[in-house]
Amino acid sequence: MITASPLGRRTLLAGAAAAPTLMTLAEARAQGVQPRRGGVLNTIITPEPPLLVLGVNNQGPTLIVASKIYQGLLSVTPKLEPTPVLAKSWTRSEDGLTYTFALEQGVKWHDGRDFTAEDVVFSIMKFHMEVNPRARAILQRIDRAEAPDAHTVRFTLKAPFEPFLLIFDVTGCAIVPKHVYDGTDFRNNPANATPIGTGPFRFAEWQRGNFIRLVRNDSYWKPGQPYLDGITWRIVPDSQSRALALQTGQVQMTTSNDIEPFDVPRFQQQQNLEVRQDGWELFAPLSWIEINNRLDNLKDARFRRAMAHAVDRSFIAQRLWFGVGKPATSPIASATRFHDPSVQMPAFNPREAMALLDGMGLRPNAQGIRASFKMMQLPYGEVWNRLSEYLRQAMRQVGLEVTLESTDVAGWVRRLANWEYETTINFVYQWGDPTLGVERTYVTSNIQKVAFTNTAGYSNPEVDRLFEAARNAAAAEERRRLFSEVQKKLVEDIPLVWLMELSFPTIHDRRLRNVITTGTGVHKSFDDVFLAA
Amino acid sequence: MTFWRRFARNLGAMAGLAILVLVALMAVLAPVIYPFSPWEMRGIPFMPPGEGGFLLGSDSLGRDVAAGIAHGALVSFLVGGVSTVAALVLGVTLGAVAGYGGGWVDDAIMRFTEFFQTIPSFVLAVVLVAIFTPSITSIVVAIAVVSWPPVTRVVRAEFLSLRSREFVQAAEVLGRGRIAIMVTEILPNALSPIIVLASLMVATAILLESSLSFLGLGDPNLMSWGFMIGSGRSVIRIAWWMSVFPGIAIFLTVLALNLVGEGLNDALNPRLAGRRGALPT
Amino acid sequence: MGAAKLLRFLAGRSVKAVIVVLAIIVFQFVLIRLAPGDPASVIAGQSGAADPLFMQQLRAQFGLDRPLHEQLLIYLRDMLSLDLGFSHRQQQPVVRLIAERLPATLLLTGTAFLFAVSGGVALGVMAARRVGRAADSAITVLALTFYATPIFWVGLLLVLVFSVWLEWLPSFGMHTVGAELGGLAYALDVARHLILPALTLGLFFLAIYARLARASMLEVADQDFVRTARAKGVPEGRIVRAHVLRNALLPVITFAGIQAGQLVGGSILVETVFAWPGIGRLAFDALLARDYATLLGVFFCTAVMVVVFNLVTDLLYAVVDPRVEVA
Amino acid sequence: MSAPILAVEGLTIGLPAGGDRANAVEDVSLAVRPGEIVCVVGESGSGKSMTAAAVMGLLPKGLPVRAGRVLFEGKDLLRLAPEAFRALRGARIGMVFQEPMTALNPLMRVGDQIAEAFRVHGERGDIRSRVLALLEDVRLPDPPSIVDAYPFRLSGGQRQRVMIAMALALGPSVLIADEPTTALDVTTQMQILRLIRNLQERRGTGVLFITHDFGVVAEIADRVAVMQHGRVVEQGEAGRVLNAPGHPYTRALIAAVPHGRARPAEVLSPEPVLEVRNLGKSFRRGGGLFRRGSPVLAVSDASFALAKGETLGVVGESGSGKSTLARCVVRLIEPERGEIAFHGTDLRPLGRAAMRPFRARIQMVFQDPYASLNPRRRVGDIIAEGPITHGMPRAEAVARARELLSLVQLDPGAMDRFPHEFSGGQRQRIGIARALALEPELLIADEPVSALDVSVQAQILDLLDGIRRRLRLTMLFITHDLRVAAQVCDRIAVMQRGRIVEMGETARVFGAPEHPYTRELLDAIPGKAWTPPLQAA
Question: I need a labelling partner for D184 at 20 to 30 A (CA). Which of A186, C71, D346, D443 fits?
Fold first, then answer.
């Protein structure tokens, strides 16, 4: 197992297991809990991010820390409805082509310069288009972007794109200062060492391998906020040490991969701490067994269906993830829009699996082996090694012999991208909308020699047509109908064996309030978070 | 005094041999005592030793630690043995040619050996395994590549001293070929230090394999002792037995090999052993 | 040893050292390029999104798009001005990165080495002087035990006993997280953190030195000049101190020179178990992240350390043994 | 006759179980009087060194003193408390050992090691000047530089002088010398013997001198004790024992001493088998990575001819190049200059393959019986190896080997046994059998008997002489012992520092040596004034 896992790839999101206890400002006052000003939040970041400029770097830890420094135009509720941030309000034209945003007045950059519409146009059309591959896929749909005045921005699309607003959260397109970046080499701009944003906290100090310290932005545009004096992220490479730091109160909050799944039950019993799994709705990572649909046996849907029947997903949820996250039921995660609960992938049924394999003529030999294939382990820490070890045993029960292949991150990505694998384990974010995060995995047009595309090589013209239609449909209801159809088709073809809707525990001191109130959880700006007495 | 009687006189060596036989027996009988794959999930995870039908407890997936240790023995011997043989073949050949050949051949080989010894052997092993992706073959190759230099040094020293011995010169005078002289005249007399070194190398190889598996560079399809310790490392607070028992297995095997090595050393060159001269106490 | 001769020796040896270090760097440079995947694929992997343009930009940024030999020449040229390149993973120049992490490794390996040599030789001498008696067999068994146990397992056991159960000592890191200590308090804190890792690394090498010292003492005890000393009526204690010990140290010094590299190898394991912020751990992470510049930087460092260490031991050997021509 | 200062009475020392006899030393009694040199002589394994070690209290652990007393200055050393005995050692009794090269601590200056003898026995004051005086006393050149030198800078002879200085530092009444000159060259040996005799006379020290060489006994002994298998078989005044030995073992030993009488030259035919012209060989010494070491001339400009059936002896001290010369002829060492004409063909430029046919016709017998046979191979294979390599079928070669065993007077049953099952003498016979297996015309013998006891030496020399005559062999005989050379060789070549300084008929060279070095060598033969009584038959 590779000890300090090089952070869970991008931030991983929990399905909304428990209903989000949305503590709005009013409710907090109503319960007589006055938001208290002051106090520094000590937390942990694992592993240490390379740098803190969103867009240039979109790795998990960067998103968590930098979302306190930068802000997006909008954010999302746990139900993935857009909410105002730097954009006070927005309107969409009748034909769904033009979006006009009215920006907040009097917002200042940390270096004192005024925040204007120019900054937004530059960030969207130049900065993220250049450095941010995920945003680029959506921003390329914009035909024109104009700033009629200092506080209005208008985007005109080439064609209607219903989920367009979901990209404007800070984790998608953080608004960066034009006067710092325009005309420079974004990746090597010296200003990257001291990030300048509009957010509630300013960059103060960074001791590599030790800690990152942000302090309150006194000229923050929301009056009286932020309540916290500052936030300090500690870098603690050893998992046992992180657990110890949380247990002894040295830190008041842990997020994402800080705490290993097997340690979570221990903290659920600790009275002064609260364990939350929600706050990942926008990301909704879904893990699955990626199958190379080009190879013998693996290209036969019956074989893949038998593999699906062989896997006990609730065992995985309970024994490997200790209840953090829940079994997957459909290619679209439950937290993502247009999830159709009526669609159910093949249940755990070893007998059915063996029947299917018999149907294919794959009889067990002397050692009881019907067929065998290789599985490339996912090199992201111990829990994934345990998962592939469990899958090998599960497949063996139905007569499928699995040989594991061990790799490290670089080797895994190269072999995945070059289709040099039989099966492996993978997980991808859904970014709130099937068009943004799900389509890329299943459409024929996206079969590329690049990681996180349709590397499985699944191709079904009917599915392509449905995804196309849903992408261009203007009305949400029309898209819902199309996506239900797609989910039924995919479950029937079962190109991949979906496993888990992953979740990540956010564990924090009970006195810390308003930690998780949005669909992005700990990736919000924390301007309304406070330490009660 | 026959070789065996001199070996038996060394109590430590006999103890070592006993342990080795036990471990070998465990490796052979593993499929009988535990007729299932060590990877199988037999019960509830994190069961302490003695409970839930687990002699030495269960690991994070409910697999039997005892079965793992039994099946792991074969892996350790396999890796240790094969890599040592490979290192010996390479080391002895280079050492012999350097020691007997002399001149620039000797210099070239020695520079090459020194070059290898300047790079920390464990670092090189890790890099090699990472490059050829962890599997039983890449581990054996990596261990062999880092453990041949000491063999070359020892064999070269032996050949250098034996080359000037008169029975070798006699063979030269008889007109025997260089290869014949190296193989039939010198090598048989250089065997005893090589045999002693071989037993110590198997021990070091097992240690190296367990270290590599501990860092996650082990063969994922082979339940090895190093792998068990590695997978138990992060849960050491709640399941200490996952790491402790495989460690004991490694310790006993490596200790046994060292003791046997010392026994062989005493038995093979009695001159050295006999001279346990009394040091002025 | 005259100053002139010393200088000539140092000059000769430093030329040889430079050649060896250069050879190692070139060898390593090519070797790590064989590893599947490259830094770009690591970043793509960790940011969860990528497209051909993104990969191409990254490769250009790391200069990976140029042919291998060109990259090597650039690296060697930069190396002359002690510019070891830029670490994309840690976003800082490799020289500064290593400068931050090297002291931790030097502290760890240095302490472990001193502990191992002094403890080992002391035990070896004691065992040799009581050969065959209880103390001798006890020390021999102890040495064999530590020689036979895997370093990381010893580390885990020490953590289990001393920090998990007894909670006397911290189980990780080089200083207490969050505690802003100054001066002496900081040193004490680091010392407390150093005990277990240094012990783990040291015990293994202590065992080697103990066995070596014992065998060497017994070997020297059989020499003729010891019999001569006894015939002169020299008391036993003085024989050991004045005659046997010094001659017995020669093989110990030689061995120390050869196995300097292994100490660094061992530090990878110890730094992993104890989360010790040294270059051993840095190299391992850099390898996984294909952070070539950092990895090569660490190899360069270890090569220099080993070569310098060999130089020192050879000099020490020449000082102790007048027969050695410092040629 | 004054009272003895050292008296050994009934000394018996046990051997560990499994030895070839019960005790190493059995009921030995002998005495040393002041100003007297008592020689204890015997072959290896006779227990002579063990007796000396017992007197000095340096017996190894496994050999218990079973009985007897060692009286010295009124005390029984065997019953003395260790601390009291230690105080005696070095002060009242001094000892000198056989191997000078390893007897001094390599890491300590010579002066300090001598000074230690003083300091350890409580001497204070200006020790350095006393050390310098001692070095002067033992006639070491330039004491001020030697006192600060490290041992490795000194020659064997010089180191032995330092050992003597150390032993006599505190004016002991008894000096024990365990074969002090055996490892030295003949000339150096003579100087050391004279030094001991001189010091002993001036200081009146009693000397117990252990040796195996009757020449040395004749040179310096006042009284002699002959030991065999741990017992003193005969003891008495030197002249009487040497010239009228009573005990049969003594008589046999003396008879085996090479008498040094020149043998009449026998040349079968004047036609030269081997002609060596201007042979030169130099070695590189030292030299690091960048500079070549200083060249040392091992053999320079050596020329000689060897007629059929003739035996040419090459004599000289160690380092004279005699061994290198022999090894050049048989191409074990590659000379840089000169010709080696064997029946007219120059062997020097021949490559390995071209040399093979000549290999069969030139063979060699080596010095150390314990190193010249491969311990891991059976005797039969060792002898048959030569013919098999040269194409003789195995069966025939084995039969030949069996014949040769009987030729060298060994029972054919030895074929299947291993070298370690034979004595030194027997192993040398096997070496000779191996050399003769290829029916060589020229035999090179490099110090073939130097490592053997005197009695065995004589048997091997007789065997060689018989074989030479019967097989009409030509021989090149290398030795440092002139008495052996005189007995065996037709002509003698004397070598000094790589050059042949004199060459001629044995009788002429021994009778009227021309070169001063030859005279010095002849003069240094110990006990040359004594001619051993001719043994009847």
Answer: D443
| Residues of chain C with C-beta less than 8 angstroms from the C-beta of A421 | none
Q: pTM score, two decimals?
A: 0.85
Chains touching C (3+ CB pairs < 8 Å):
A, B, D
Query: Which of the pair, A159 or D19, is modelled with greater confidence?
Result: A159
Distances (CA, A) of B223 to B67, B69, C148: 10, 8, 21
- CA B274 from centroid of its chain's CA atoms: 27
Q: What is the Rg, in whole angstroms, of the alpha carbon atoms belonging to chain C?
A: 24
Residue A106: exposure state from Cβ atoms within 10 A (0-12, 13-18, ≥19): exposed
Is there a contact between A132 and C57 (Cβ–Cβ < 8 Å)? no
Rounded to two decimals, the ipTM of the complex is 0.83
Closest CA to D38 of D190, D168, D221: D221
Polymer length of chain C: 327
Whether chain A has a CB inside 8 Å of the CB on B170: the answer is: no
From D516's Cα to the closest Cα of chain B, the distance in A is 34
Q: pLDDT band for position A487 (50/70/90)? A: very high
Q: Which residues contact A401 (CB under 8 A, 6 or more apart)?
A: A369, A371, A372, A373, A395
Q: What's the N-to-C CA distance of chain D in angstroms?
A: 39
Question: Residue B3's Cα: distance from chain center in Å?
Answer: 23
Q: Which residues of chain C make contact with B281, given a CB cutoff of 8 A?
A: 129-130, 236
Query: pLDDT confidence of D472, banded at 50, 70, 90?
Result: confident
**Partners of A207 in the β-ladder:** A211
Burial class of B37 by CB neighbour count within 10 A (0 to 12, 13 to 18, 19+): middle
Asked if A15 and A206 count as a contact pair (C-beta separation under 8 A), the reply is no
Q: Which residues contact D82 (CB under 8 A, 6 or more apart)?
A: none
Distance from the B272 Cα atom to the nearest Cα atom in chain C, whole angstroms? 9
| Contact partners, residue D319, CB within 8 Å, separation at least 6 | D497
- Tens-digit pLDDT profile for residues C34-45: 888 778 888 777
- At residue A48, the 3 state secondary structure works out as coil
Cβ burial, residue D319 (10 Å; 0-12/13-18/19+): middle
Beta pairing class for C92-93 and C86-87: antiparallel
C277–A209 C-beta distance less than 8 A = yes
pLDDT, one tens digit per residue, over D40-51 is 999 888 889 999
